[in-house]
Amino acid sequence: MIGGLLLDLCVVAAIVLFGWAGGLLGGVASIGRTIAAYVAFVVAALMCDPSGDVVHALTGLGAETSRIVGAGLCGAIVWLAMAAVLRWWLARRAAGRIDPEWDVPLEDPLERRGVAVVSGALFGLGWVTLFVAMLVMLPGDNFVSRAAVGSTSGAALIRQEGVLQWLDARFPHYTQTLPKGERGAVVGNAGSLPMRGAGVARAATADADQLLRSVNAIRRGRSLEVLEPNRAIARVAQRQAEALAQDHQLSTRVAGGATLDAQVQAALGGDATLYEEHASVLVVWAHTPGNALAGLKSKTATNDQLVDPDAAGVGIGAADAGWFNGRIYVIVLVQPVEEDAAAGSDERVVTDDLGSADAAAGDTASSTDVQGRTGEGINGALDPDDVDGDGDVDGDDAARAAELAAGADPDATRADGRN
């Protein structure tokens, strides 16, 4: 990274300049000022909290501002006091190193140029260490902060962590670990991440549970069904989160480029048929679950997936990538197979079967009716020779047939009361 290389060159140049200045100042003076600077810094660090409390009580300034003012005052007082002591000591030392015979100063091994240069370089090393530490912890995602994190000097501080943790603990509003940015979260595929350090990723189960509770609280606020945690899916999400943290990557896909769908289906086992084959995967790199949720809500696409009314099952994995590197969260959402569609399909099959049966029955009835009507005699008799419909073929049938042949109304009532 070009920014990191430039910062490393600036660090080296600063140390060289401090060494050169120490050589001009002289060995004893350079040593004295280096000691004074380190002592002043140590005292300021030790007195940061108590002096900050005093400044806050006297002025009413904010806690962090009070610490800055208190530490600065303590450091300045110690520096001025040690400078006065140094001048007094140098004068006494110079007076005591006079050759009584020749009345000239004796040669001082501490005044050798090499000693002076080394002392000045140590002075510069202390200042650039503090300066780079402040740049590494600089809030905001900009060129300077990215350069500090990507530099060799910044990486050395990140691996040690001591100075950075001290700064972060006392000035949290003026410092920021990874990921940088306004919300402290990076959402979606981001490829390679600027993580530093070789720490092994660890599971952060409590963070995953907290994130799930927060998401379900949002869904309840919208009168949606809460997401049911699925252990099998959660194991897939956890493996993905730890792999991403270990590889310093942020991706919704596994290392080979495949999606998590096959892993989710395999993890579900016999329950795989209850869910859709495609799973929604959300990845977030953030400081805390709160930062992760804020990042997810800031994007319309991811926010819509969190409040999708069709989503039912969920698995969340969280991996701790180290104190400075933050955490990676993987959220896997699955949708159940649409029961209405499946039921509708079954209902259509049953309806089609019933319709076929009814049609067959109707055809049979129609056929029987046609055949019955075709085979009926006059006035509905089954035997065509039974004209009067009394069930017997006799002389009355012949008489009735004659009447009809003569033009009688077939529906007229006969004298005997029958039609």
What structural category characterises the helix and strand content?
alpha+beta
Oligomer: single chain
Biggest beta sheet summary: 6 strands, mixed
**How big is the Rg?**
46 Å
Secondary-structure element order, N to C:
HHHHHHHHEEEHEHEHEHHEEHH
Low-confidence stretches: 345-384, 411-419
Look at the structure and give the mean pLDDT. Answer: 82
The share of residues in helices is 55-70%
Q: What global shape is seen? A: elongated
Percentage of residues in DSSP E strands:
5-15%
Give the end-to-end Cα distance, rounded to a whole number of Å.
Answer: 113 Å
Give the helix tally: 15
- Counting DSSP E segments of at least 2 residues, the number of strands comes to 8
Short summary of the structure?
This protein has 15 helices and 8 strands. With 419 residues, the chain is of the alpha+beta class. The strands form 2 sheets. Strands 1, 3, 4, 6, 7 and 8 form a 6-stranded mixed β-sheet that branches. A two-stranded antiparallel sheet has the order 2-5.
What can you tell me about this protein's structure?
The chain is an alpha+beta fold. It is built from 15 helices and 8 strands. It has helices at 2-25, 27-46, 48-59, 63-96, 113-136, 143-150, 152-160, 162-170, 205-221, 231-247, 261-268, 289-298, 300-306, 339-375, 395-405; strands spanning 185-187, 191-192, 202-203, 228-229, 249-250, 280-286, 313-320, 327-334. The strands form 2 sheets. Strands 1, 3, 4, 6, 7 and 8 form a 6-stranded mixed sheet that branches. Strands 2-5 form a two-stranded antiparallel sheet. A hairpin with a 6-residue loop joins β7 and β8. α2 runs parallel beside α5 and α5 packs across α6 (143-150). It is elongated and about 180 Å long.
